[in-house]
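Sanity check

After download, print the first record. It should look like this:
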Amino acid sequence: MASSISSSASTLRRSSIRPLAVYWLVCAVMGVLYLRPELTNVTSEFGAAHLLSIAMTFLATVTTTVAYNRIVTTGGRSLHLPTLFCFSILTGLLEKILFIASFKVGVAIAARLTTQPVWLFLAGTLTFFAYLGAIHAFFWIKILPSHLNKSPAVKPIRRVWIVSLTIMSLLWGWLYFGYQDFWSVAVLHVLFDAGMVYSIRYRLG
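Expected structure tokens:
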């Protein structure tokens, strides 16, 4: 009986991790096939404008993470440190590959019509936002536990979070588009995901 219960628990754990493992694998394959230059090009020289962009993006990421912490609940779950490190690093680095790939799709489409940087950036932002909405609506909502705080008291903070999230996403896109700086954006994504895991006490398994 005990063996049966243990086996069932193990099966449930495997089944809950499997979609994430598949997603991470897809991200890694996409990186090798389509983003190899970005992954192998580590920026070693940072100009003043580049550093300012990183600082602004870091500030927006921290602000968004703090606001997110105020609009979610832990659901009584305890912090699981292995998940905090494993999920944040793997998802932050690997999912960023698909984020950048979706951005590049918009840029490539717009490049057939214009060479104006502002339109290329806006097109990339549009396809990135489309992917962002789709992956959260059809994937993450099924993976993450219920965590939104529906109390009317947090509505003002939720508005702040939405604005901050939008600014953060635009700055992530600009940091890549303007400087081809994949790794700075990826590290900031890891930071954001760590804040998410901490805020809702998500646990792998």
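If your output differs, re-run the checksum step. Summary of this record's structure: The mean pLDDT is 91.
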